[in-house]
Specification:
disordered N terminus; about 25% strand; 2 domains; two-stranded antiparallel ribbon; globular; 8 strands; two-stranded antiparallel sheet
């Protein structure tokens, strides 16, 4: 069973004008089809099934992400600095990150998520 997920996204692209590039505009809709049923939109429980993983990957960003070839790429943070003993990873959040309501995202938010996972 395919479930259509409609998410309002912040950017939709207008068709290119001759000689110009597409310009992002506010508003619009993004439609994505999923095969399967979702149990949770919470990324902390997304490992329950593949449909949940697909949906949460569309809605949530991580500190880092995997590229097409499996390489670790920057996400909400730059690539981490790793201490020589390999036990500590230091992430620096990128500037200009905000929640949907305009509140800035900070290290306390990341800490809350990590503590919730534990």
């Amino acid at each position: 069973m395919a479930i259509g997920v409609v998410a309002v996204v912040g950017l939709a692209y207008l068709p290119s004008q001759p000689g110009g590039e597409a310009r992002p505009v506010s508003g619009g809709k993004y439609v994505e089809g999923l095969a399967g049923s979702t149990a949770s939109v919470n990324p902390l429980y997304a490992s329950l099934n593949e449909a949940d993983q697909d949906l949460t990957s569309l809605l949530f960003a991580g500190l880092v992400r995997l590229g097409p070839n499996g390489a670790v790429l920057p996400g909400m943070a730059d690539l981490p600095t790793i201490t020589p003993d390999g036990l500590t990873y230091i992430f620096e959040l990128r500037r200009g990150l905000f929640w949907h309501d305009g509140v800035p995202l900070d290290a306390e938010d990341v800490l809350f998520t990590i503590e919730t996972i534990q």
